[in-house]
Amino acid sequence: MAHSYTPGLRVARLTHIVRERRLPLKGDVVVSMGDTVNADQVIARTELPGNVHPVNCAGQLGILPADIDEVLIVKPGTSIKKDEVIGVSKSFFGLFKSTCLSPIDGVLENASPITGQLILREPPMPVEVLAYLDGTVSKVFEDEGIEVETSGAIIQGIFGIGGERHGKIKMLVSSPDQILDEDGITGDLTGCIAVGGGKLTLAGFKKAMAAGAVAVVTGCFKNVHLKGLLGYELGVAITGQEDIATTLILTEGFGDIAMANRTFELLRENDGRRASVSGATQIRAGVIRPEVIIPSTEKAPDKDIEKAVKGLEIGDQLRVIRQPWFGKIGKVTALPAELQRMESGAKVRVLELELDDGEKITLPRANVEIIEE
Fold first, then answer.
1. Is the pLDDT of residue 304 over 60?
2. Disulfide: which of 50, 130, 323, 348 matches 122 by Cβ 3.0-4.6 Å?
3. Domain at 312-372: CATH code
């Protein structure tokens, strides 16, 4: 039976984590079922075809397209170097000569006697996929990739930018509401996942980048600083491909919001431990959340796997991640099946939550995160 509820965010101290790692097209998988892998280990390789460069050889040499084969001194399928002569034509009894040069290093793929065009292709581009997690290969997809699994802590954020990275967690603040600015960035952060609390300033993030941090995880950041950081307006498509040296993960969002106590304490408990992070975010169909994964040698209980399949249940503890009850914690007391109309006019699936102070509220299921012990 399908479930309509998907946790808005997930924060768990010990859970079963599985990630698929696939090549963009078929290639070679270099690990086997049951192998232990490290986050930075290559698990599969392939080559992407190089870019194509059309060359109007007939036009350059002043010949008819049908005569293209007669002027070529390099045959299709042959490797070529940049500025190498690939075609020569002679005119006025051989006294004058015109040449066609290759604009690239690559291969001459084809010569068309209809258009007089040459098709040149750059060398293939090697692609390697890393394991991303310290874990075990639990499934192999032939010629495509693997599934890697581990037990450990996971913290999903609201928003992130930057790619997949790994390093050691380093706490830079002492409380979940402490601002992380440039004065809080001290010493070398090479290979570290720097953790703040509340607001991260633009100057603080830039200093963390300069100090070598592979990622910064904090409560919030001003969205107006994103353009200054990236040099362009961020669109609504998936993030994670930005050309930035340090991944940024926001656990709460934009503005001035303290990190949730549970999230902060979980990160502080794991200070100094190795973790994997990804800033990839997609808020539309097929939601993708930025994440921090901290592998553990302790095995997650079997009930954790069962819960991931069953979905939300009465009695589960949740945290609200939207105003006006942002940060409130309570237990689920009802899960109405019918859609209900919100003040905005939208009809959504809701839940009833009893807060710690006894107040009962009704809110959209997308406005909460599950809290797992």
1. no
2. 50
3. 2.30.30.30
